[in-house]
């Protein structure tokens, strides 16, 4: 119980700190449509990269892409329709960061 309260206090103060770095202030209730932003900040805090996107955007569902063949009409679609403005360039940048992080930890 005490650890939970300490973590919540830490996350609240971290969100306040990060708000100064963001174009819009972060609020304790902010989320990506699925996961609360505060949970995304634990345990790395300031080392966490925040991106203006919803949960579907990050996994590639931020625009309609016609399917080629098969039974589906679309290959991808804007899953949560958050109108975040997420782009192909942002998608590539996020996943390049993820792959770079993973490769750095893979060792020789």
Output the number of helix runs: 4
Q: How many beta-strand elements? A: 2
N-to-C order of helices and strands:
HHHEEH
Q: What characteristic shape results from the CA principal axes?
A: globular
Largest sheet: 2 strands, antiparallel
Helix content: 40-55%
Calculate the terminal CA-CA distance, rounded to whole Å: 41 Å
Report the radius of gyration as a whole number of Å: 17 Å
Q: In percent terms, what proportion of residues is strand?
A: under 5%
Brief summary of the model shown:
This protein is mostly helical and 108 residues long. Helices cover 41% and strands 5% of the residues.
Description:
By secondary structure, the chain is mostly helical. The protein folds into 2 domains: 50 residues, no CATH class; 57 residues, no CATH class. Helices cover 41% and strands 5% of the residues. It is built from 4 helices and 2 strands; from the N terminus they run αααββα. It has a two-stranded antiparallel ribbon. The longest helix has 18 residues. 8% of the residues are buried. The N terminus is likely disordered.
